[in-house]
Amino acid sequence: MSDTDLSAYKRSAALTALDYVKDGMVLGLGTGSTAKEFIMALGTKVAAGMKLRGVSTSRETATLADRSGIVLLDDNDHWPIDVAVDGADQVDPSFNLIKGGGGALLKEKIVAVSAKQFIVLIDYTKRVPFLGKTFPLPIEVISFGWRNTARAIEALTRSRVVLREQAGAPFRTESGNLIVDTHMARIDNPRELDAALHHIPGIVETGLFIDCADVLIVGTPQGVETYHATRP
Ligand SMILES: O=C(CO)[C@H](O)[C@H](O)COP(=O)(O)O
């Protein structure tokens, strides 16, 4: 299915997420095409008189938020984020996520875990029985010694690790780091893998979002489905 076909499902999920937005809130604003639908929809709320402030996870999102009339908090402020809303690349049955397809995973994770509630918006094709296989795991690494870091990731995961490129050059995150995409056949235990990866020096953050999502909103051909995570 093409991205154009899926954009209607992303949009319907984004519109449903508006129900969670109340006047005066501070919102965490994700990055990517689904987050974009949400931020543009927020513009209608602001135009109708709602006052919203936000924390942006990328320059692209900051531009969209500005156009929607959302006042952005400074990077150096303490952010009292009520609700963070973002897309994802894969979601497993326990609502664990792979994120970072757009390369914004570090800021996205900081914002998601800072929020009182984290809402994930996806089209139905992103729900998977297990993470990996159809989407490589993005890992943000510092450029110093990145080849050694990549080798260590390969040894741990027994998978192919590929430096992400853009226009023929290494892709740089907004924090100045690199992304290596890790092609794993299947991630059986995302929590254990995330913990093990964090022991490798040079890894800044992984695209595994474990126990972060509170609400999952899925756009499907049959309509929008909403799920609330239950945690012990
Ligand atoms: O993690 C992300 C960016 O780093 C995005 O949320 C993820 O890639 C999904 O993107 P899209 O909504 O465009 O399908």
From TrEMBL:
Enzymatic class: isomerase
EC number assigned by the record: 5.3.1.6
Database matches in Pfam families: Rib_5-P_isom_A (PF06026)
Binding site for substrate: 31-34, 86-89, 99-102, 126
Isomerase recorded as keyword: yes
Gene Ontology terms, MF aspect: ribose-5-phosphate isomerase activity
Keyword Isomerase: yes
Pathway entry: Carbohydrate degradation; pentose phosphate pathway; D-ribose 5-phosphate from D-ribulose 5-phosphate (non-oxidative stage): step 1/1
GO cellular component term of the entry, any: cytosol
Protein task: Catalyzes the reversible conversion of ribose-5-phosphate to ribulose 5-phosphate.
Subunit record text: Homodimer.
Family, per entry: Belongs to the ribose 5-phosphate isomerase family.
Name the record gives this protein: Ribose-5-phosphate isomerase A
The encoding gene: rpiA
